[in-house]
Structures are given as C-alpha cells and as structure tokens.
Amino acid sequence: MVSGGSAIRGSRVGAGPMGEQDHGHHADRIAISYWDALGNETVRYFAANLPEEEIPEIIDCPMSGLPAGRDRENPPAVAKNEPYKTHLAYVKERRTEEEAEALLQEALDKLRARRGTVAS
Predict the structure, then answer these.
(1) Is the dihedral of CA 41, 46, 52, 56 positive or negative?
(2) Average pLDDT over residues 29-48
(3) CB within 8 A of 43, min separation 6: which ones?
(4) What is the DSSP string of 23-59?
C-alpha cells in the first residue's frame, strides 16, 4: 500500500506522455558564430523566429573570458587590465589642499547659482 506523496518504486516522478515536441526542442534554430580577439570561435543557437535586433552583437567568450563579437574580421579589442595599485600609489595621486579647496568652492558656486543661496 502506498501512502503519502511517495512515488511507486521504480516509477519516475513526472514521467508521462510528453516528448521532445512538447518541450520545445523541435523549434527551428539558427547558429550564430562569435569570435574573440584571440580568434576563438563560439557558436550560440537562437530561435529562428527571433528578431535580428534581439540577437546580441557581443557575448562573453567561455574559452578566453574576453568579449566576442559576430564580426570575424573586427573582433572586440582585448580588455585592458589595470595594474594593481598600492595604497601609496593612491596617496600620491591625491590632490593638494589648494586644489581640493578650489574644487569645493567651484561646487558651492554652482549650487548657489542653481538654488540662489546655500546655507553655510
């Protein structure tokens, strides 16, 4: 005797008369090739009735991690990785006190011009 929500031993849960045609696997598809900057080709499949503007021009290539475009002759450029900066490098880039005060004054002047006056 079977009780509760358990399936009968040996039966598949969800098994039924559905075939591929019921899952949409029979839909017409088109293959689009994408190439990354290293020349790797990736093929993606899209529904044949999908409008051209909904098919992306650029994707991420799973082989290299670089972007890949549909134009083989002009693939997207290789992404530029910024070198790691130490805290000291950021400190050296900081503005001087005079530059900071000038920027603050310029921002306050713009606000005053927009609002009339700013409470100090």
Answers:
(1) negative
(2) 90
(3) 31, 32, 33, 34
(4) HTTTS-EEEEEEEETT--EEEEEEETTS-GGGS-SEE
